[in-house]
UniProtKB/TrEMBL annotation:
Entry annotated with the keyword Transmembrane helix: yes
UniProt key word Acetylation: no
Signal peptide location: none
Gene3D superfamilies for this protein: 3.50.50.100
Organism: Mycolicibacterium peregrinum (Mycobacterium peregrinum)
Gene Ontology MF terms: NADH dehydrogenase (quinone) (non-electrogenic) activity
Protein name: NADH:ubiquinone reductase (non-electrogenic)
Species lineage: Bacteria, Bacillati, Actinomycetota, Actinomycetes, Mycobacteriales
PANTHER family, alphabetized: EXTERNAL NADH-UBIQUINONE OXIDOREDUCTASE 1, MITOCHONDRIAL-RELATED (PTHR43706:SF47), NADH DEHYDROGENASE (PTHR43706)
Source organism, top-level taxon: Bacteria
Keyword line: FAD, Flavoprotein, Membrane, NAD, Oxidoreductase, Transmembrane, Transmembrane helix
Domain FAD/NAD(P)-binding: 7-333
Family: Belongs to the NADH dehydrogenase family.
EC number from the UniProt entry: 1.6.5.9
Length: 455
C-alpha cells in the first residue's frame, strides 16, 4: 500500500462509499475501502429479507467480489474506531478485537446512520431496528417464531399477544414492514397452521404524525393510508411510543390524555436514526459541528471546514436539504471521486449539487408510491416503477436476476422462499434459544426528542 500515489481511505461500503470507490477504480490513486461488514448492503430491500421474500445473499454483495477487477482498490474488513487527524491515520478493529492502522491523504467518511431509540437503548432488546443484515435476520426470527409460538397456545390473551405485531414509526420502513407482515399473514401463512388463523394477526402501526409517509405529498399519503387500512394494518397516528417491554408497548397521545397499553409480543422499531459511533468520535476529535442526530457539518464540496482532506458523504453529511436517501449518498460518492480526479489533473474542486430524483415506497403487492417532481404514481403503476428502480440500483447482475425471479415466483405462488431463521445452539449463553427472558441490563439514559426520520 505504501508508495508515492495519493492514498484515499473510504470508511463505509454503503451507497456513498461504493460509488466513490467505483468511480476511483483505475484512477492513479490507491484506494482502501474499509467496512465493518464484508459486503455492500442494499438497505431498501431489507424488509423483504426480514419477511422471508428475499435471501440475504440477494440484497448484499461481497465488496471483495465487487472490486475484484479494480487493481487499485483494496477492500478491508474492520471497524473504524479512532482518528488521528494530525498523523492522518485511522485505527480499525478486527472482529477478533485486535487493531490495525491505515494512513490516508484523503479520507472519505461514508459510515451512515444507525437506528436511534432516542436515548432509550433498552428498547432495543424488545424492539429490533432495521438498519443491518443482522437486524433483518433478527426480525425474521421473531416474526416467524411468533406465529409458531401462537400455534402451541390455547386461545386467550397470551396467544393474542403473540399474534399482535407493533411497529413504531410510520415512515417508509415502518409502512413496508407493517404491510409485509399483514400480507404474509393473509397470504403466505394463511393455510399453513391448524390451531391459529394467521390472517387474524393484528399489525399496529404507531407514529407521532398525523399520517404515514410524511415525506410524500398528502395525496399519496392518503392513498397509502387507504391501502394499509384495506390490508388490515391498524394505524395509530399522533402518538409516541414511550415504553417497550416484554409484553408490548405504551403509547402517549401527543395531544394529551392518558397513556395507552397494547399487548404485542413482537415490537419492531423504525422510528429514528442517529450517527454511528465513529461519526460522533470524528466530530469530537475535529471539533466540528454536528446536528442533534450527529450529522456532521460539511462545506459546499462536502469536506470539513479547515480539513479539505476529509470528506463526509451520504446520510452523515450535515448540510441543508440533503436527504437521508440512497441517491444523495451515491451522488456524494461520485462527487468526491470527481474532486480527487480534478485535483490530480490540477483543477479546482466543484461544489456538490444534489439532484433530487424523487422517492418511492412499497406498500403491498401491486401497490407502491413514486414521487418524482410533479410526477406522482400510486397503485399498480407506482409498483411497476418501484420495481424497476430497485432492480436498477441493486448491486450485482446475479442479485438482480435472482431477485426478479424470486419476485415473479412470489407473485405467482404467494410463497416466500427465504423463511429459514437461526435459533441459538444449546449450551452457548451468547446464542440463546430464547430472547424472551432477557433482562434490560442498562438503566434508561435521559430522553432526547425524536428527529422523525426513519432512514
Ligand atoms: C430499511 C431501509 C430502507 C430504505 N429504503 C430506501 C429507499 O427505498 N430509497 C432510498 O433512497 N433510500 C432508502 N433508504 C436509505 C438509504 O439506504 C440510505 O440513505 C443509504 O444507505 C445511505 O448511504 P450511506 O453510504 O451514507 O450509508 P450506508 O449505506 O448506511 O453505509 C454505511 C456503511 O458504513 C459501514 N460502517 C459504519 N460504521 C463503520 C465503522 N466504524 N467502520 C467501518 N465501516 C463502518 C456500514 O457497515 C455500512 O456498510 C433506506 C434505509 C433503510 C434502513
Amino acid at each position: 500500500m505504501g508508495n508515492s500515489r495519493k492514498r484515499v481511505l473510504i470508511i463505509g461500503g454503503g451507497f456513498g462509499g461504493l460509488f466513490c470507490a467505483r468511480r476511483l477504480g483505475g484512477v492513479d490513486v490507491d484506494v482502501t475501502l474499509l467496512d465493518r461488514a464484508a459486503g455492500h448492503l442494499f438497505q431498501p430491500l431489507l424488509y423483504q429479507c426480514a419477511t422471508g421474500t428475499l435471501g440475504f445473499g440477494q440484497i448484499s454483495r461481497p465488496l471483495r467480489e465487487e472490486f475484484e477487477r479494480h487493481r487499485n482498490v483494496t477492500t478491508l474488513l474492520g471497524d473504524a474506531i479512532d482518528l488521528d487527524p494530525e498523523l492522518r491515520r485511522v485505527t480499525a478493529r478486527r472482529p477478533d478485537e485486535t487493531t490495525f492502522t491505515l494512513d490516508y491523504d484523503v479520507l472519505v467518511v461514508a459510515a451512515g446512520m444507525q437506528q436511534s431509540y432516542f436515548g432509550k437503548e433498552h428498547f432495543a432488546e424488545w424492539a429490533p431496528g432495521m438498519k443491518t443484515l443482522d437486524d433483518a435476520l433478527n426480525i425474521r426470527q421473531r416474526v416467524f417464531t411468533a406465529f409458531e409460538i401462537a400455534e402451541t397456545l390455547p386461545p386467550g390473551p397470551e396467544r393474542d399477544g403473540w399474534l399482535t405485531f407493533a411497529v413504531a414509526g410510520g415512515g417508509p420502513t415502518g409502512v413496508e414492514l407493517a404491510g409485509q407482515i399483514r400480507e404474509m399473514a393473509t397470504r403466505t401463512l394463511a393455510h399453513e397452521f391448524h390451531s391459529i388463523e394467521p390472517k387474524e394477526a393484528r399489525v399496529l402501526l404507531f407514529d407521532g404524525g398525523e399520517r404515514v409517509l410524511k415525506a410524500f405529498c398528502s395525496e399519496l399519503g392518503e392513498k397509502a393510508t387507504k391501502s394499509l387500512q384495506k390490508l388490515g394494518v391498524e394505524l395509530h397516528m399522533g402518538v409516541h411510543v414511550t415504553d417497550v417491554n416484554r409484553d408490548g408497548v405504551t403509547v402517549t397521545p401527543k395531544a394529551g390524555g392518558p397513556d395507552e397499553q397494547y399487548a404485542a409480543r413482537t415490537v419492531l422499531w423504525t422510528a429514528g436514526v442517529e450517527a454511528v459511533p465513529f461519526a460522533r468520535h470524528l466530530a469530537k476529535v475535529l471539533g466540528v459541528e454536528a446536528d442533534r442526530s450527529g450529522r456532521i457539518a460539511v462545506g459546499p464540496d462536502l469536506s470539513i471546514d479547515g480539513r479539505p482532506e476529509i470528506f463526509v458523504i451520504g446520510d452523515l453529511a450535515g448540510r441543508e436539504n440533503l436527504p437521508g436517501v440512497a441517491e444523495n449518498a451515491m451522488q456524494g460518492g461520485l462527487h468526491v471521486a470527481s474532486c480527487v480526479r480534478r485535483e490530480l489533473a490540477g483543477k479546482p474542486r466543484r461544489p456538490f449539487r444534489y439532484r433530487d430524483l424523487g422517492s418511492a415506497a412499497y406498500i403491498a403487492r401491486r401497490q407502491a408510491l413514486l414521487q418524482v417532481g410533479p410526477v406522482k404514481l400510486a397503485g399498480f403503476f407506482g409498483w411497476l416503477a418501484w420495481g424497476f428502480i430497485h432492480i436498477a440500483f441493486l448491486t450485482g447482475v446475479r442479485n438482480r436476476v435472482s431477485t426478479v425471479t424470486t419476485w415473479l415466483t412470489t407473485i405467482a405462488r404467494e410463497n416466500r422462499g427465504h423463511r429459514a431463521f437461526m435459533l441459538g445452539a444449546t449450551g452457548l449463553p451468547e446464542q440463546r434459544y430464547t430472547w424472551t427472558t432477557w433482562d434490560a441490563l442498562t438503566p434508561p439514559p435521559p430522553e432526547s426528542p425524536p428527529d422523525g426520520n426513519d432512514r
